[in-house]
Specification:
By secondary structure, this protein is an alpha/beta fold. Helix 1 packs parallel to helix 6 and helix 3 packs parallel to helix 5. The model has no long low-confidence stretch (mean pLDDT 95). The structure holds 6-chloroguanine (6GU). The site of 6-chloroguanine (6GU) has 12 residues, from strand 5.
């Protein structure tokens, strides 16, 4: 998986991706990251990438040209590699809400381009020209699209072959079967008077599986009944 991010804050993207499991995957070469600074593509002498909205109103709008040129600066190499235009995801609270199914779909691409919005938005014309998917990460408003892009790259990375070790496996986890994951315990057996459920020490794998299934169901009913419908 090759990630490309068009952003005004490339350091934020790089610093976060270089951490923890995505950092290890970048070092091993199972994923790659190219954070492109949109500001490098402005032709204005003061480095502006935004301007006032036509029609008035609060805030500033990111201009089309620097974004278009930033995108064009990576598109040619990608097409040379794969023979096709890459999938371009625009992070916006007006998009479709990201979920595990979309993560799986994105993980099948060779290249993913994230366009991170800022200010009050992006000139619609460049979005019409380059964007394939408008995606939000939930019903709340953030200051910019960098955290959403990082959230999506994290969720996609762990579905890429070899990124997770066996012990980190993505098999039983929440959402894999439309249910939340069961509770987990580790040593010690007793912590401040609270003990581990005895079935987990029984050595009876069938009983353990049944207990975990019941716990998943109970937890999903209580916390996310919408998943069971
Ligand atoms: Cl993708 N962008 C912004 N600015 N806010 C959000 C979001 C995206 N998803 C949820 N809130």
């Amino acid at each position: 998986m090759r990630f490309h991010v068009l952003t005004l804050f490339p350091d934020m993207i790089e610093n976060s991706m270089n951490t923890s499991i995505t950092g290890r995957a970048l070092e091993k070469g199972d994923i790659s990251l190219n954070a492109v600074n949109i500001r490098d593509f402005t032709k204005e002498k003061h480095g502006h990438v935004d301007d006032y909205p036509y029609g008035g109103g609060a805030g500033m709008v990111m201009q089309a040209e620097p974004i278009y040129l930033a995108y064009k600066s990576i598109e040619e190499d990608i097409i040379k590699n794969t023979g096709k235009k890459p999938r371009v995801i625009y992070t916006t609270p007006t998009g479709k809400v990201f979920n595990q199914k979309m993560a799986k779909e994105f993980a099948m691409e060779e290249d993913l381009v994230f366009l991170c919005g800022h200010y009050e938005g992006v000139d619609e014309r460049v979005l019409e020209m380059i964007v394939d998917d408008n995606v939000s990460i939930g019903d709340y408003v953030l200051t910019g699209g960098e955290l959403p892009a990082l959230v999506m790259m994290d969720a996609v990375s762990r579905l890429v072959d070899n990124v997770l070790h066996n012990s980190e496996s993505a098999k039983d986890e929440s959402f894999s079967n439309n249910m939340l994951e069961y509770p987990q315990y580790t040593r010690p057996y007793e912590f401040m008077g609270k003990t581990v459920p005895d079935v987990l020490l029984s050595g009876d794998h069938k009983k353990v599986d049944e207990w975990r299934y019941e716990q998943s169901l109970k937890r999903t009913r209580e916390r996310r009944p919408d998943l069971l419908e």
